[in-house]
Amino acid sequence: MKKKNYSIILCGGLFLASCMSNNDKCLQKLFDEVGVKKSQIHNATHLVTILGNGCKGCIHKALSEIHNSTDTIYIIACKSKKTFNLITNKNIDDYSNVYLDTKSILVELDMAKNTPRVYLLNNGKYVSHSFYGNESPSKEANTTITFNTNEIDLGKISRTEKAKIKFTIWNTGKNIVRISHIDLSCECLNIENEITEINPGDSTCLNIIFHPDDIGKFQREILLYGNFDSSPKLLTITGECF
After folding, report:
1. Gene3D superfamilies this protein is in (predicted)?
2. Cis? peptide before 232, omega within 30° of 0
3. Which residue, 68, 98, 132, sits at the end of a domain?
4. Residue 21: pLDDT above 60?
5. CA-based nearest residue to 221, from 98, 133, 107, 122
6. Regarding predicted confidence, which is higher, 41 or 232?
């Protein structure tokens, strides 16, 4: 793959809930529906999927990095070429590797959420799932953590109100938990308290403030990086804003 200026973090274990049993079948359906050329499928090493209704900052970054390449396919949920031009200031006809998903296939297959996704391919087959991020997972895992829950559903929430969310984290290992970084998928999320260390056997709370940024169903993600197994850990916040 040619040099690119975005960073991605491999997280194959987080792949599609609806396509868990057959990743390749989902990829093929997506390629067929949006009309990706077979020659491009076999030559591509990466697929980038982007929704237009998620984290605005994340999406703008991904869209700004679109480039003509034979090893990367971009599929963007967008109603028309005109809409694509309005949100990107780019002409889709200038790119041979950019395709529009006008039928919401990405949503149907759960292949893109509020943050852009990157899929590693080999001869058109699924290898691993990736996402845009800020740093690599820790290579010095020497303890374990658990949560009271990995997902909180806020139900229906007014766009004019803010929600306070609390995740409890337990250090279930024998060494001190050191949290090196917390990545938020949206500017609508803010961390209320700083967490850096948790002693063995102790617990602490991660307090998040959510400011609704759009109307409709949403899913926001929080990634915790540190010296624990399976770093980063994924926490999700879901609901519907009215």
Report:
1. Immunoglobulins
2. yes
3. 132
4. no
5. 133
6. 41
CA distance 31 to 33: 6
Work out the burial of residue 175: count CB atoms within 10 Å of its CB; fewer than 13 is exposed, 13-18 middle, 19 or more buried.
middle
**Encoded tokens for 169:** 């984290």
Query: For residue 199, what is the domain's CATH number?
Result: 2.60.40.10
Task: Please give the single-letter amino acid code of residue 107.
Answer: V
Q: Domain of 122?
A: 8-132
Helices (H), 120-234: none
Is residue 139 a part of any domain in this protein?
A: no
Q: Do 23 and 16 touch, CB atoms closer than 8 A?
A: yes
Report the distance separating Cα 170 and Cα 167, nearest Å.
10
User: Token match 């093929």: residue?
Assistant: 28
* Residue at 95 is within a domain: yes
Look at residue 206 and tell me whether its pLDDT is greater than 90.
yes
CA 105 to chain centre: 17
Same domain? For 128 and 150 the reply is no
Give the pTM: 0.51
How many CB atoms within 10 Å of residue 31? 21
Identify the band that residue 8 occupies on the pLDDT scale cut at 50, 70 and 90: very low
- The CA distance from 180 to 172, in Å, is 18
